[in-house]
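Issue: copy button drops trailing tokens. Both records pasted manually instead:
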Amino acid sequence: MKTTIEDIKRVLWAGADTFRGVIDAANYKDYILSMLFIKFLDDTYEANVRELEEKYNHHEVRVERARRNLPFQLKDDIRFRHLAEKRFDPRIGALINGALQGIEDLNGELRGIFRSIDFNSEAVFGNTQQKNTRLRTLIEDFMDLDLTPANIEVKTGQTAAEVIGDAYEYMIGEFASQAGQKAGAFFTPPMVSELMGRLTAPKNDEMIYDPTCGSASLLLRAAKQADIQKVGIYGQESNGSAYAMARMNLFIHNCHGAEIKWGDSLANPLHLDADGNLKQFNVIVANMPFSQDKWAEGFNPGGAEDGSRKGKEKIFKMEAGLDKFHRFDLGVPPASKGDWAFLLHMLASLDSYGRMAAVVPHGVLFRGASEGRIRQAVIEKNLLDAVIGLPANLFYGTSIPACILVFKKNRTTDDILFIDASGKDAEGIPRYNKGKNQNTLSERHITDILTAYHNRSDVEKFTHLASLKEITENDYNLNIPRYVDTFEEEELIDIGEVQENISKIKAELEKVELQMEKYLKEIGL
């Protein structure tokens, strides 16, 4: 019987149950998804070796020679099956850590992938007995799960890697829904990622970049708009846990050439060309941290002071000249809000015919001072192509509405399209699915947005194509209600009818009170 995606999900939920109540959801995902990854490597490696044995008729020398050319290598003492045999060993935490280190040492592509994960931490798992019990249980949760590629049930046009990868991403999303505000650091809702991928429409042989890539779910969705094996995938992530998830996620999806870096994209961008300049990309997508405070601290590693507060603690001040890549020549964003810092970094990383989509809070559209000056400069350089308002409560960890900004280099027109997808359509139906805890977008909602984006024409209460003159007259304020009128007239209230209803309710209430009094007397109260 083949393994289905539901089977994989059930095992992952079993792992979650093993840790629930002991470790926060934002943290136990690291251990559960790492264990899935180890099991995936073991079963895939076993299948690859058996295939070589059959191909070369068990000729040991030829099999061994061919085995060295497999996508990855494993030794017996670092495989999941070895850990399963040793699951009662009192040193099981150290054994798992040793297996993780062994996997990294044998495979350069996986080096550093587990550096932020410690299965032997009593601070995480409790005392030795509690730790060993939970780790043994976690291993047992995965023991009966068969991830051999040939034994995975696939749909038409789907690969086994995609099934496992989809289950992996599903659980990232589920963990995100439990992790509260911490979730925004590593996951973009699938349909938002799908929308951004289609807006930027990557093509084969193009390079795609996400400077705040989280678990790489957005990168993967964008890459799948083309042949995922024929695009260059690049990302950077400052959070160690999310960085590990991203690399595992891409590896499971068979993206072996992806380049994911660990570090601060603003203070220390790591994707550079041969001359040490920012690497240029055809497509950039990002769901960056909203209004990140102290975003420029990385430019002040030596604790430089400006001397502006006599007799008091001196404060560092970010200046454009501190960035050797000249990303802030159009203006320096305020210290407390890094939205435009990320956007300027991405624009500087976009090639001369590139396109880019980024999720931002609405404040980016209208905040003044330095942000207003940057916004004006970007518009005057004709880089902004569209502003798309999204429904509230779409993203994990925040209920505030956000929007997608679409940028393009070398545009042939200077207008800007505004789309308000947060309200209702002409039939009064919401342009999103209302959920109990979270709202979602369906394929129909995405199609409506994409159709409006490509048509670039006015649709009442939905879209407006604004000229540069109109933008200028609005002082470069991009607040969507200035351009798309979604005002709904309230239905007139018939005061006479309301008073009549109130009188009826009062009369009915008197009858009920009299009846209640009668019942109470009958029971002696």
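Record 2 (pasted manually too):
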Amino acid sequence: MSAEERSKRVAVGIDLGTTFSVVAYCDGKSPPRVLKNSLGKSTTPSVVCFKGDEVLVGQDAKDEQACGELNAASFFKRRMGDANFTFAVGSREYSATELSTFLLKKLKEDAERELGRTITDAVVTVPAYFNNLQRRATLDAARAAGLNPLRALNEPTAAALAFGVRANDSNAGKKYLVYDLGGGTFDVSIIAIDRKEIRVLATDGDHLLGGKDWDDRLLTHVAERFRDETGLDLFEDVESANEALVRAERAKIELSAREETKITASSRREKVAVSVSRELFENLSSDLFERTATLCESTLRSCVPALTWKDLEGVLLVGGSTRMPAVKRFMEAKSGRPVLSGANVDEAVAIGAAIQAAVDLEAAEPRYSLESGSEYLLETPRLADVCSHTLGMIAENDDRSKYVNSAILNKNAPIPARETKRHKLNVGNAENPELEVYLLQGEQERPLDNVILGKHVFSGFERTGAKEIQVDVTYSYDRDGVVGVEAAQVGSSRNLEKRVETVPDDMSWTDGVPKELTKSVSANLSIVFAVDVSGSMEGKPVEKARKAFLSFVDQFDLETTKIGVIRFADKNDVVLRPTRSRIEIERAASKIQNAPWTVGSGTSAIPFDDAYRCFTNTRDGLRDSFAKSPSFGELRSRGVGALSGNDRERRFVVVLTDGQWLFQSKAVKKAKSLAEHGIDVVAIGFGGANKKFLREISTMDEGSLYTDLSRLEESFSSIAQTIKGNGLKRV
């Protein structure tokens, strides 16, 4: 590359946020600066709206969404790397990666207008908890937007870099906690920072927690007051609910500077002004603060050696939502340590990314003379980040009684990282044995409770006559969080051949026992809890539903049962795929609440396609199954009985609803198709639910139950006992 071509390369840092995004630039000689968008703002809303043939991005899209436009997509960052997520606009479906590409193109265009130069490269930030699939999806979006991604940088690490350049030698060896509360996600990292290096000791996050959840608490409070004073359900009017949510978000911001404000809600010629004090707001959201503290403490314990609050020098606050005064007070009280200032919480992540972009570009294409000692980059600390998740493979346990996640690279290992673990491969009498390496990302022992990143098949082993050979499996983890897989036969100089295959839809065999063993195991259960969170569920009904769900979970042994959660209204939201992790299930339970901004407030969604995908790990739904599926009458005539105890897994969708679904006939067909795929539907209803419809979507004898709100928990307990006892029979 010529000197002229090198001089044309321009790198920026991009904070690709859940609610807002920021672009910053550092030329390597002077401090970084944020590049304003076409409206002169430093932040751009992460919203994409499809209006006719036009694609609106940023503030224009957010304005349309505030007016009730249903073709406006937001919070899609939470779904990056999720093959089951699409945003439908007419006959066209967009993935989270495609939506992010629209946003990145807009950010690039605005930054180029401000900078007066063409931007070629970027460091794009990601939440620390992002897995390999999510990181790859982010990098793919950057490439599709015309950017060369230099790396995917963890957001708390980028923020620490922005703070770190202000550090001095007296900070050497001190440890800090980075508390990053954005609009849609929460990240926490423990770092050791000094003048020369920032070392990340541990990191974690929660993609179901962010400033939006504080907005929702205000909106729910306003909706309750509106119903009390008018008798009307605010959530039944989508446009009015969206307007109220915008006002709730604005009120949250106002309460950072004022002790009290008002939120106005209007619908169907009724108007109510609700006064909200800062104290009330903080009481409404107190449990959300506690959730962040719990994650902070678990991250401290995961350091090696384990740390406590007393080991910290202070706390760095990052993310726009940390502007809430309660955040600083809460963290100072919880940690007993000071909260540090010195960086704009909205801009810190982008600033850190811009610094790293300049460093990376300088390393790749040296352009600056650094001999004088005046260049800004000389003051930049080096980064030493960590693996955000454990990386393992599916293997047999020591007594060969079950399949487990065999860890190779541990969470919080410094990166770039490379580790090898030796495994035994039973080749028997096979002439051309193969080793299948299913790459897992996560910390759970059960393989399917982790993310399956890929399938790598190795062949070309040298036969020694023995029935077992030893194989070294090596994982590498680069600075982008992208994984490499290698394998080598111990004692052989022959290079193995590798091919990458698609992960099968059905991985349920991992819940069985290795083929060589014949010992019997009890049947496993997999349950998806699909809960109606439409406007009519607002208030006490959704609270009762959340409590009943947790009581329902308590009825099962999570060693043999995995549970997932879908909430639905006008749209579906897969909150949690089936898992045996009690912590994840409890987190999902906290999301059983009205979410008009995410799923709307009507009753047009049908949860059965997404439930099917939860069980099958496929992007396909039930649409193509009707032609192959027999009629409901044919199912009856076959006399399908209960699944036997020898089957690997019995699968159920437990639906809770309190109203009339808009597309009932379509829902009945989808339920029948689920039954054909061995997935049974149990329906529980109360309030305005239609008893006949409950019976029609249920695929089991006595699989529908109409109850009242006061007996909801008791009804779920009864259903749980019936499912465990295998008392339900296919109709």
